[in-house]
Amino acid sequence: MKTEVLKLDGSADDMVKIRYATRLLQAGALVAFPTETVYGVSADARNPEALARLNQAKGREEGKPYALLCPNIRQAEELTPGFSRIARKLTRLYWPGPLTLVVPRRGGGTVGLRISEHPITRALLTQCGFPLATPSANKSGSPREPTSAAMVLDELQGDISVVLDGGNAWRGKPSTVVRVDPSGVPKVLREGLVPAAEILDVSRPTILFVCTGNTCRSPMAEGFCRETLKDVFSGEAGALPFRAVSAGTSALEGQRADPMAVEAMKEVGIDVSEHRTRALSPGLLDTADWIFTMTWAHRESILKIMPATRDRVWLLSSRSEDIPDPVSKSIDRYRQVRDRISHCMRDVIRVVGGSGQ
Fold it and tell me: Are residues 189 and 65 in the same domain?
């Protein structure tokens, strides 16, 4: 069998070729194509004969599982009994993209899952509608990562039916593989495009406090939360398992904390003088595991921008009361706001502690 090469050039004919490749995959054949990492070779993950064919083409021992490319998050969810909080966070930050998550598989064992951001891959998976077992398009143990159709042919000519030639793969380096066990602890099994240090950093559970300017209320809450966490976990702030940060819906970047907020917090032994303001952003919201707002208006503004945060955003006051902005008021008003925020920390720890991993 000679491997057929179908050149994709951005024309309307591309979808005809992708649909042809889809029919081959549905029939149990093997198809190679570019992704944002390297070229992959795929088989229908539901078809034992296709998987055996993939093992033979790769020269890979039977029984060793393949990572699966999924068309969308819904189909990825169907393959696992549930994503842990940390796994869900990593999907928010890196899917679609070059991260493979190894999670518990429905029915037992584990499975590696990824959603690609490459348009050819996404179009093919959308047409298929089912997960594809997709290792790199080379022989097992090969020292070269396949970044072009020509490199795929060098390795797999005659072993696969079709190569969709979409030019060079974007980045030429494999995905990072991370296992997230049921307790939520991440372990980097293979470092790829996403640095291991970055994975471990963003996986650290993050509590985000939101006000308007990020000069007084949310820095106060951040300061109290850090101290409360140190008491609970008996550690230094840098070694804590949780991270507390703050931001403002209308904040200017890099401003100092309100001097009266600094003074009010100093009176209770907490130093926020080094705080610098941060503007609230979608990326910061994605990084946060728990989001606490000072007012209902802050909460609604977040939900309007990112409705998917609904299950992660709470009003700081468990009494459903706004915490008023003390800006331009007396130092006594700052003290009153400070004390109200302090009383709310018990509710924060309760929510965080009850959310699981």
Answer: yes
Domain residues for the domain of 135 are 4-196
Angle between helices 119-128 and 13-26 (to 10 degrees): 50
- Work out how many domains the chain is built from and give that number: 2
- Return the half-sphere exposure (C-beta side, CA atoms, 13 A cut-off) of residue 261: 26
Q: What would the DSSP string read from start to end of 84-138?
A: -HHHHHHHHHHSSSSEEEEEEPTTSSEEEEE----HHHHHHHHHH-S-EE--BSS
Token pair for residue 311? Answer: 């299950």
Last residue of a domain, one of 162, 196, 230: 196
Q: In which residue ranges of the chain is pLDDT below 50?
A: none
Are residues 208 and 192 part of one domain? no
- Whether 50 and 150 share a structural domain: yes
Retrieve residue 285's tokens: 């919201």
Question: Which residue from 12, 225, 185 is spatially nearest to 87, judged by alpha carbons?
Answer: 185
Amino acid identity at 250? S
Please tell me the pTM assigned to this model: 0.86
The residue out of 196, 229, 259 marking a domain boundary is 196
CA distance linking residue 278 with residue 212, whole number of Å:
10
State residue 1's pLDDT score: 78
144-170: pLDDT as tens digits: 999 999 999 999 999 999 999 999 999
Chain-centre distance of CA 352, in angstroms? 19
Tokens representing 309 are 């945060």
H helices of the chain, where? 13-26, 48-58, 73-78, 85-94, 119-128, 149-156, 196-203, 217-233, 259-266, 282-287, 296-305, 331-353
CA dihedral for 232, 234, 237, 243, sign (positive or negative): negative
Amino acid type, 345: M
Long-range CB contacts for residues 184-190, cutoff 8 Å, separation at least 24 = 184/84, 184/85, 184/86, 184/87, 184/356, 184/357, 185/86, 185/357, 186/86, 186/90, 189/102
